Amino acid sequence: MEAIQPPQGKCVQILVVDDNRDNALMTKELLRTRGYEVQTAENAAVAEKIIRENAPDLILLDVVMPGKTGVDLCRELKDDPETRLIPIVMITGLTDREDKIRAIEAGADDFLNKPIFPEELFARVRSLLKLKEFTDELESAESVLYSLALSVESRDPYTAGHCERLSEYASELGEYLGLSDDELVALRRGGYLHDLGKITVPDEILKKGSNLTAAEWAVMRQHPVAGESICRPLKSLRDVLPIIRHHHEHWNGSGYPDGLKEEEIPLLARILQVADVYDALRTARPYKPALSYEEAARVMHKEAESGLWDPGLVERFFEMLERRKAA
Question: Of the ranges 52-56, 218-222, 309-313, which is most confident?
Fold first, then answer.
């Protein structure tokens, strides 16, 4: 049986966390016979330092350790977006059902009981590394889409930094409204990916800015559909698709591409839309100067009254900004 290598070709790195030095060294030697690079840590603090410096592809984690337990460390790693996708195998000599339930609730991906049998160890490691390989490929695909989105932004020097600001505004408003962690992640991603479909729009239309002809508008209005189509194959972006497709809909039904109105428009799309309009007003463009905060507030409230934006969200957005200024 050969070690599973990641797509980039570097050797797989495994971290063994066990306060029993003999157990840790035995596990290390077993794994090294299959070609894996293995580091050991005698407690959670040492493990955390290693993970911060160079995140491993897999962690074998003893449940019972002095100080911070394996279950506590597992929970912290799974709660952190930077480490939550690292597979974790809990190693335990305990047979109590409640201990395993706590480990499962902490996010453990698999279990090994002491004493460890080599073939069982190899089988579980190989299985989880295969899953990690798929995860890494998924992350690579997402990274390509983010790069494409930023390349679209870079085609217009007047929109520099727009995606980053929009991601921040939208997620901050979502947090202010009490949305879930998954919804906040979708808003952050949507901030970068919402205009990805503009990659299909020619420069002569994209950079024209205003006074588009009817034919040019027809091309421009297809970019939300194109962006949704590009992102649809990635299941990890399923919560972002409604944002991409519907962030140009209007509260009164006059928007595009589907002419949705009021609460037919998904909430996350409406949130991103409010943030998008604010950033556009506050940024100088070839056809207009940047507006002050007070001017942007007046314009957005007026446009909300006329039926363009969700009036409740516009109110909450500026309420959030006022509180942020006061803080």
Answer: 309-313
85-130, pLDDT tens digit by residue? 899 998 887 666 677 788 888 888 888 888 888 988 998 898 888 8
Count how many Cα atoms sit within 13 Å of the Cα of residue 134 in the half-sphere of its side chain: 9
Please state whether the peptide bond connecting residue 257 to the residue before it is cis, i.e. omega within 30 degrees of 0.
yes
Given CA atoms 18, 23, 25, 28 in this order, what sign does their dihedral have? negative
**What one-letter code names the amino acid at 145?**
L
CA distances from 123 to 15, 93, 183 (A): 17, 19, 36
pTM for this prediction: 0.61
- Domains present along the chain, CATH in parentheses: 13-136 (3.40.50.2300), 155-326 (1.10.3210.10)
For the record, the structure tokens of 319 come out as 């309420």
Amino acid at position 139, single letter: E
